[in-house]
Automatic annotation (TrEMBL):
Residues 104-300 form the VWFA domain. PROSITE patterns: VWFA. Gene3D superfamilies: von Willebrand factor, type A domain. InterPro entries: UPF0353/GerABKA_families, VWF_A, vWFA_dom_sf. Keywords: Cell membrane, Membrane, Transmembrane, Transmembrane helix. This is von Willebrand factor type A domain protein. The chain crosses the membrane at residues 20-39, 319-341. Pfam families: VWA.
Amino acid sequence: MIDAAQSTADVGLELWGNLALADPVFLAIIPLALLLLAFGRAREGRAAAILPGLPGGAPPSSLRQRAARLLPLLHGTALVLLAVALARPLRADVETTDTTEGIDILCAIDRSGSMDYEDLENGRSRLEVVKEVVGDFARRRMTDRVDAADSVGLLTFAAYPELVCPFTLDADALLDFLSQVELVRYRVEDGTAVGVALAKSVDLLAKSQATSRIVVLLTDGENNREEILPLEAADLAAEAGVKVYTILAGRYVYRSGFGGVVRTDEQLDSTELEAIAERTGGRFYRARDRDSLEAIYAEIEDLERTPRESSRHVDTFDLYPPVLLAALALYLLAWAGGLTFGGRTP
């Protein structure tokens, strides 16, 4: 790379690579200078033709005469280089800085006993399907190259909430934690504490400095813990500026009956989940199968976008000094030649 001094000039014309010109208008000198040189040579040729020819033809050119013919080439090259130097060639080093105002996303997943039912996809529990869909969503958000990559955390809940993975940009780490999420093992842990889980989520996000903070809360049932009611937690979220998307996942409602658990035609009451979303500026969704669940997370992904902002900084470096020196050197050589071997003899 050419060693050059930093310049105060701006790029006027980009060439190729990182080369540019500050004042390309001076390139117009080149054809004008070459035309003047050609006109001068033509006049010299016409003057020579006036002289009477010698018998037997012209004698062979001497070394001095052959060297003199180089003078127009030296003059022309010097003028071309001078025009290029006046056009002020630059090396433009462009530095682009991406400033990302990412989103902090907390995925809250219900792992209560009812998440073992197999009605989102045949042969697979609700929790297994949810883990895969949430994992794909998180991976996309954390490795996004079009918009800002987001920091994602994972919280699970049944009777009690648990922060499984703190907010991270490491997709592999979060997916590893997600793969280890299991259904509750003991009855004392079972339940659907939507209000408590949301309050915990808000508390975690309240410490975030992100421009946008959201909770994607998925459950397959109604709140049945009274420590913190869902709408009380929704008010906390609204005050903290946390947006909540709520998802009710499951096709059927199951009840205990004769012979075990039976499927019913009942519909779960989604009033509280809808109210949570409305109070916090989010949306409520109902997922009845895997396809609808994937579509829900895809829609949330489209809704929550914070574009990447790029700032372009250009440092320019002058390249004209060696070009100017070369032009002056050729001009002096042509001038010296004109006084010596290029001079006319009386």
